[in-house]
Each structure stands twice: as C-alpha cells, then as structure tokens.
Write a structure and sequence with these properties.
With 207 residues, this protein is of the alpha+beta class. 40% of the residues lie in helices and 35% in strands. The longest helix has 49 residues. This is Transmembrane anchor protein.
Length: 207
C-alpha cells in the first residue's frame, strides 16, 4: 500500500486565494455569456465581439427561424379560424337558400296526360289579384288555353300549341276562376307540373 502524504497547512489555498479563484471563474462565465452565448443564441451582442467572431450572425439566424416558426403557427391558426368562419357562413347561406327554395311556390301539382287526354286546373281569384306561375312539360308536348270565367264574364289570357313549358303571371280581370285547360295532342305521354304563388283563395282540379 502507498501512503499518500497529507499536505501541510502551508500548501493549502488560503481564503483569499479561494475568493480570487471564484471571482475569476465568475468573471470568465460572465465573459463567455456576454461574448459567446448571448450573440450566438439570442442575437444580443453588447461588446461587438460576437459580430467579429460571426456569432451574432448565428444568433440572428436562430432568431429569424424562431420568428418565422411563430409566424407560421399564427398564420396556421388564423387560416383554421378563417376556414371555420367561411364554412359557417357558407352553411348559413346554403340553409337560407334551401329554406327560400322550399317557400318559393305556394302550391304545386303534377299529373300525366296520355295521348288525347285533357286536364283543367283553376285558381279562385278576385278582380285585380295577381298570381305568378310556372308550367313544366316533360316527355312530350301539350296544347293549353289559359283563361278565366265567372259571373257571366269570360276572358282568354294565352293559348299555346305543342308547348313544353311556360311561365308568367295572371292578373284577374274579374272575380271568378282563372287557370288552364290542357290536352295532349302528342303521340306519347306528357307529364305536366304547375307551380303557383300569389293572391288567390284556392287552387283546384276543375277537370
């Protein structure tokens, strides 16, 4: 076994030496912090040494990357919020459009006429009342007579031959029934759809 010699009291550092060593270490740490760490990590160069050593440029790059990452994060969040807002607005518009479409026409009827068959539908209206209409014909063509009668009065508003559809308005010339008579003069069945809205008390089958 080796016996290590114990240092004498004279060989041990004094309190003043310990304080001095600690102060030097602290000063070195501060110097490294100011001249190396701050310029390289945070682009803070109070002494200018970081710029000479190229450390400030490194810190500037890191700062820019951090700022760009934060900007991308904010932009992504804003994009998500904007997309959500657009979807909500679009949903409101679509819902309103569907609701409006469902309420456009007050009454609607659809029937099919075989070749040679006829049908008649009338609106009960008072003089001066107005009705808007749309007539759709699918699968064939029809002849029609849009007219009115009541109280000994009669009027023809419009006639059509080989029609595949029509739209317009009826302004009642007098109190009574105003509407259409159809006949299928084609060689194939024709499906007729009539949609109406406006001022009237009844829309009825008068065939």
């Amino acid at each position: 076994m080796f016996n290590a010699e114990k240092p004498s009291l004279d060989e041990l550092p004094t309190s003043a030496q310990l304080i001095r060593s600690t102060a030097i270490a602290a000063a070195s740490a501060v110097a490294i912090l100011v001249t190396v760490v701050l310029p390289a990590e945070y682009n803070i160069d109070p002494t200018g040494i970081g710029g000479v050593l190229g450390l400030s440029e490194m810190g500037e790059i890191k700062t820019q990357l951090a700022e760009e990452a934060e900007a991308d994060k904010v932009m992504q969040l804003e994009g998500q919020e904007q997309s959500s807002l657009i979807n909500d607005i679009f949903g409101l518009f679509v819902g309103a459009a569907h609701a409006q479409e469902a309420e456009v026409w007050r009454d609607e009827t659809t029937f099919t006429l075989a070749p040679g068959d006829s049908a008649e539908w009338k609106l009960v209206m008072e003089e001066g009342q107005t009705v808007e209409y749309r007539m759709l014909v699918e699968g064939g063509r029809v002849n029609f007579d849009l007219h009115g009668h009541g109280g000994g009065n009669s009027v023809t508003y419009e006639k059509g031959r080989g029609s595949t559809g029509d739209e317009g308005e009826i302004i009642a010339a007098f109190d009574g029934e105003h509407g259409w008579f159809w006949r299928n003069r084609d060689s194939q069945p024709a499906t007729v759809t009539v949609q109406v809205r406006g001022e009237y008390t009844e829309f009825k089958d008068a065939s």
